[in-house]
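Reopening closed ticket. The problem is back. First fold of the pair:
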Amino acid sequence: MELRGPRSLSQLRLRRKRGWLTLPDRARLAAFLERFTVSRRTAPSLCLDAIPDGKPLRIFPGIALGAALLSLFFTDRAHAEFTVCNQTLDVVNLAVGQKVDDADQTDGWWTIGANQCVNVIREELTNRYIYIYATDVFGHAILNGSIDMCIDRRRFSIRGIDECWQRGHIAARFIEVDTLEQVRWTYFLTGNSP
């Protein structure tokens, strides 16, 4: 492909009048850009010409494998380890319970929109069981759990699960999620108890 005249758009001198290109400048710009249009017939040959020695099929698997290995080694360690995905059509408020330093702890609230996911625990999971409690926007429980833990009306982090009412908190029934001792887990909230 041979270029005549200016070699780049920055070399093309255009006069601006109050922020707009004048008519002769528009025509020159259009003519300049037409040189770079590619038809469907010439596109495959241009792509093959860009690959050295025309060996795309032998080189591509090695490049793809190398890129995949590099992505494994250089991934950011701040990615979520326990994620909850809301597959309902409603906005959900979520509280999570787990063992922290040999004591039960509940944290909340995360608001999850319909068909969205939220990273709840960002460290690798060390507990096999994670407990979750979900409500709709009116405060009605979505999941029917069997483990009593403490929550609060506003954002909270509560140590211990005993005597919730006496300590000024609300007792709620969490469901138990078995992560099978994996370090990463995603729970899909469908609105039905598992």
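Second fold of the pair, where the issue appears:
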Amino acid sequence: MTAPRWIIHLPTTLTSLDGALILATALRDSLSHVTAIDFGETTLSEEDSQFLRTRVWCDARLDGAGRCRRRDGHAGPCGPAGEELPPIAATGGAEEAPPVV
């Protein structure tokens, strides 16, 4: 039997799904060297509806090495990039991230 994996729930001050998606992407891009974090399994939820989760990335295995980095439910073939979100703007930490356009 394998040991259970632990989940870190990281609340934010963000008030929109777009802002949370941008932050999740920024965390993945800046912490991808930390092998203990499985960003492919990232999900988002509203604070009062944590049982309703939104999957962020497709995460399908690619031929060769790596996993699909496109958004979950993307159109077209999987790939290392594609429907990437822009990096989060510096906001001082407490303000809302800019919306994805």
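Update: turned out to be a display glitch only; the data is intact. Helices lie at 17-31. The longest helix spans residues 17-31. Please close again.
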